[in-house]
Structures are given as structure tokens and as C-alpha cells.
Amino acid sequence: MPSSPVPAQVLVVDDEPDLRTLYELTLLREGYRVDAAGSLAEAWAQLESKKFDAVITDMRLPDGQGLELLHRMLARQRTERCIVMTAYGSAENAVEALKAGAFDYLTKPVDLKQFRTVVASAIQETGGTGARPRTAPGIAKQPLTAAADRPPNSQLALERLVGNSPSMRDVKERIAKVARSMAPVLVRGESGTGKELVARAVHACSHRSEGPFVAVNCSAIPESLLEAEFFGAKKGSYTGAAADREGYFQAARGGTLFLDEIGDLPLAMQSKLLRAIQERSVRALGSTQEDIVDVRIVSATHRDLAADVHAGLFRQDLYYRLNVIEILVPPLRERREDLPELCQALLTRIAQESGMPTPVLSQAICTQLIGHPLTGNVRELENLLHRAVALYDGEELQVDFAPTQLPVREADSSSPAPSSLPLTSASAPLALPDDLQAFLDQQEREILVRALHESGFNRTAAAQRLGLSLRQIRYRIARLAIAAPGDEANGDAA
Ligand SMILES: Nc1ncnc2c1ncn2[C@@H]1O[C@H](COP(=O)(O)OP(=O)(O)OP(=O)(O)O)[C@@H](O)[C@H]1O
Predict the structure, then answer these.
(1) Rounded distance, CA 202 to CA 180, Å?
(2) More confident residue, 491 or 483
(3) How many helices (H) and strands (E) does the chain have?
(4) Per-residue pLDDT tens for 284-306?
(5) Model confidence over 256-270: pLDDT tens digits?
(6) I want to staple 195 with a disulfide (CB 3.0 to 4.6 A). Which of 187, 279, 373, 404 is the partner?
(7) Across-strand partners of 55?
């Protein structure tokens, strides 16, 4: 990739001459142009004399706090990305800086590899470039305030979030605003309100949008596999690890890691996740090498995490780290005015997926839908319309408001499979498998394939039949590499 003729310009603010020199040399070696200041006053004088792409400031300076510089830059609508360096262990400062609008933070003593990664990320987001640019030069060096300044897919991602009610407009504005930094985002809302769509929009509106979006459903991964799934595993590091495999953190490098149902993460794994966020590095199982974390974390939950913290179910320090910026997605009952537009958009999508013209929704049905409780939010609405389209006879679209019939199961609710499946027989005990995991995988695969076939490869319907959420079935389909029509449209990792 050719170098830009104009290298990015960075201002380093630190009162320790040795550290300043170290940072300067590191950045110069990366091909940036570097200026340095030893105090707030000096830094401000530099800022008034010219524009930079990024400002890296220590928190404690002889004439004040690095945060003051950040506040002042934001008040003057300066376009530079600001990276704040905080003392080790002072999570409050890091979180405070991110909440105040810092692009990112670094913990002292600064790891130079991390330093380079974070600065490169900030420069990339402003469109500046070092001698080894990671993106094509020429992106406007401006803050992402106006729609025109956002990445090309951002508008599309925001439009996918159908709804023009004041609360949805607030959500979209917040997405566009928070997309600009690396600050972790926690998306809260009831099940089915569209939290994953919000997370995707945050990614699409950020300049990480060209990187991967890796969605992980924390509640669907068996506890014993969590560490390997998150951080990766070397061949042979645990039974069944037949080859080296990347974890979600590595797969999301340069992009966004979406941790859905974060409240369901067991406490032991919460500690490991916190460590990964604090240390900004992860180590694959069985590996001696640390991988730098270069991901933006967006998490989501339908639970009241603050209450979980009080109840001792969720680590307070992790909550604090993940909840730097919160986006609350309102339930559908609080934005019923969105229903006509939502019905139209969902019907169009469902009909397109089924390769048929979009049926017309009568006023009467629309009114009925508006009066329906829809406690399952947009997902319930989507399911109602899915069923309606499946039964559509070309005349008038009918919506069946009766609750979905789930398959009858054996009296013993712990039985994992419907009684009709000839998987095991009560009278003839199975020979013990010599590879339990492979055996269970095979059983699971057969059940999933059958449910998918019987539901015409409609994953929502198949999930419902098996008592799984859509996310759970997606995870299982991906884990067992079951190919289904339409897979290519879905880039999820989980
Ligand atoms: N505003 C919206 N516009 C269009 N479709 C939507 C909207 N909100 C949700 N949906 C659709 O509803 C379904 C559920 O959305 P999503 O998976 O994002 O919800 P969620 O809040 O993450 O649910 P859960 O908490 O159960 O994981 C998806 O198919 C999504 O495309």
C-alpha cells in the first residue's frame, strides 16, 4: 500500500522528559510527525498553533489534569483524537476519560506495542497515516458529526433500525455519537428489542466498520469451552482441540466484539474477561504468547446488571468497565407509533427472503397488531409475520395471534429431545461412546438438521421447535458447521 505524502501529526504531552522522548522516538519510527509538550499550557499553545491528528496526554501534569486538556479540546470542537495515559490500577480515570470523550486510554507503564496499536487506531479513525498506513489514505480528517462524515454503510445500518419515534431517534443519534471512540458500549433492553441491530449499527458507524463484527452469545457457550472460545486455543491444549484455533478476541481484531447476553457469563469467566480488558491482551489456551487486544467491545443484556452486581452475580469492576456508555433500547410498547413502519419493513424482508411479492397488511390487522401486547417485542412481531407469510394464500394476509405451539415433550422435562426422536430407547441402554463429545455432536447435528429441514430452513422456527433462542441455534449451527441456505448473508461468528 503506498504511503501518504502527508504523515499524521501527533502531539505528545508528558512532563517526564525521558518518557516523552521514548514516546516521540516510537512514533517517529512509525512515520508520524511528532511534537511534544511538558505541561497543559505548552500543549495548549501547540494546539493553538496548528492542527494535529491525535493528542496523547498524561493524566497528571504539573499545571493540571490531562482531562482538562480533553474538555477544552471538546469545548473548542477540536478534531484531534485524544488518548489519555492513566496510572496502573486507576480504572476510574480511564473510564472517566472515555465518558468525557477520549478516543481511548493507555495504562502506565505503557506497553509500546499497545501504544503503537492504539495510536494507529486513532490515526486511522481520523484518516491520518503513518509511514505504514493500515488504511487507504484520503479519508476526511474530521470528526464524525455529520452523516456525510460517517463510513458509507453507516446510513444503511441506521436505516435497518426501523422506527422514527422520538425514543428510536434518540437511540440512533446516540449510536452515531458514541461510534466515534473506542469506549465500551453496553446496550440494554428487553429481549427482542433490537439490541444486536444497535450493536451492528455502532460498528457500522465507526471507522472500524471495515474490520470484522464478531457476535458472541455468552449464554449459548458451554462453560467449559468459554475460555477457548474467547481467547483461542493451541492444538492439544484441551481434549478435542485438534488444531490451533482463534478466539473471538483474535477474530475481531481491528473490528468490534459484540458480547450478547453478557449478564449470563459465569463469574469465573467474568474475571478473565476483565483481565483481558485491563491488560489489553489475551493468551490462547496452551500458548505462551500474549496477543494484543485490538477490539472495541459492545455488550448487551436484557437483565438488570446493576441489580446483578448488588446480588453478587456480576462483578462490579467488570460492569463499570463495560458500561462506559449505555444505550437503552425501548420496548415496543413504548413506541407503538413505530409499528406500521416496522410491519411494512419486516413484511418486505420476509417476503423477499421467501422469494414472493410483499403481501398487503390491511388496516384492520395493523390495528390488531397495535393492540397486541407484543411482550416479545420486535422478535415476536417478526415471528407473527413469518407465520402469516408462510400461511399466505395470495388473498388477504391473516395474522394468527395464538401463542406458538411447541412440540410436546416427554413428561421428564430434563429430556433433551422430543419423544418422537428415535435417539435412545428406554429399554435398550446405549453402548457407552468412546468419544462422548463426538457422539453428542453427532446427535445434536442430526436434531438440528432435522429441525431445519422440517421448518424449511427457517432458523427462527427451528429454534422455536427445539426450545432454543435464535441466537442459540445460530451458535450451534456455526459450531457444527451445518450449511443452510442463506448462510452467506450472515457473517456472525456465533
Ligand atoms: N428496529 C428494528 N427494525 C427492524 N428490525 C428489528 C428492529 N428491532 C429488532 N428487529 C428484528 O427483530 C429481531 C430481534 O432483534 P435482535 O436480535 O437485535 O434483538 P435483541 O434485543 O438482541 O434480542 P435478544 O435480547 O433476545 O438477544 C431481529 O430479527 C431484528 O432484525
Answers:
(1) 9
(2) 483
(3) 19, 14
(4) 998 888 888 899 999 999 999 99
(5) 999 999 999 999 999
(6) 187
(7) 11, 82
The DSSP code for 101 is T
Ligand 1 pocket: which of 191, 196, 303, 328 to mutate (most atoms <8 Å of CB)?
196
pLDDT tens string 226-253: 999 999 988 877 766 677 889 999 999 9
- Alpha carbons within 13 A on the beta-carbon side of 33: 11
Place of cell 472495541: 296
Ligand 1 centroid to residue 191 C-alpha, Å: 8
Residue 74 to residue 58: CA distance in whole angstroms: 17
**Amino acid, single-letter form, for residue 308:** D
User: Rounded to whole angstroms, how far apart are CA atoms 246 and 233?
Assistant: 7
Q: Could you give all domains of the chain from N- to C-terminal order, each with its CATH number?
A: 9-126 (3.40.50.2300), 147-328 (3.40.50.300), 332-390 (1.10.8.60), 436-489 (1.10.10.60)
Q: CA 1, 7, 127, 290 torsion: positive or negative?
A: positive
Q: Which residues of 441-458 are buried (b: 16+ CB within 10 A; e: fewer)?
A: eebbbebbbebbeebeeb
Distance of CA 257 to the CA centre of its chain: 4
Separation between Cα atoms, residue 352 and residue 339, nearest integer Å: 20
